[in-house]
Amino acid sequence: MADKSNEISAIPALLSLLNIKGAVVSIDAMGTQKAIAEKIIESQGDYILALKQNHETFYDQVTNQFNFREDSYSQHLDKGHGRSEIRTCKVIHELNWIDEKENWKGIKSIIKITSERIIGDSRTTQNRYYISSLQADAAYFNQAIRTHWGIENQLHWQLDVGFAEDYNTTRNSQAAQNLAVVRKIALNILKADKTSKASIKAKRKMAGWNHKFLLTLIANKNF
Q: How would you classify residue 164: left for phi > 0, otherwise alpha for psi between -120 and 50, otherwise beta?
């Protein structure tokens, strides 16, 4: 984003550059704006938008509906890294009782995701709500919303841990963009390597210590 700008103004500009016909656009709560939903529909795409209390009346109407009904239900269990997560998804397609729906172009579904995380003896539960222009079932929305968070959990986490991106202090906009591109190229090269089972961070160090390993990475035909 440019200086003195924010996601609300940057997202429509980005959408104007992309061909999203037939695509599903998922955005965090900051981007849940009427104009953005309208832009996606006009571009022949669909949306899944996170809904929080900054849209107070709409949020209250949506959350209240799940006290009375659900049109579709799905539950999924994930295990790994010493923890378990149960994600329960409920979907409502009948929106007649939601007055605010008239302000959101193309809206066809409201979604509730309940995440229960279990780490040892500790259990935490969180409810999240979404709106969508898709009339899909709960299993679809459960997976689609999980995939959205995969961007943060996989790409951004790997860049932070493997390349310490969060600690980078480059402020010049062009230099920052160039370094971000270089880090992503390096990450893809390291991920394509099948000669070692070491972590991304370890492979990066190995490439700096061992020129033979570095040349193996660069010459990899899978990249």
A: left
